[in-house]
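Here is one chain, start to finish.
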Amino acid sequence: MVEPQERVIFELWQRENAVGIAMPPPDAVAELIVSWLEATLPAEADADADAEAAGPAGA
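Its structure:
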């Protein structure tokens, strides 16, 4: 999930551009998600590798 941001938007009911709350553009959201995944997935991969190295649980 990404935070909405204040930027210029088109308000249909007033038929004009105004400053308002809107979602970030898709390319900015994609960059944010990719950077989050790059930070999150390596940490999970390391935890999985450590669990496999420890052996099966309860053995």
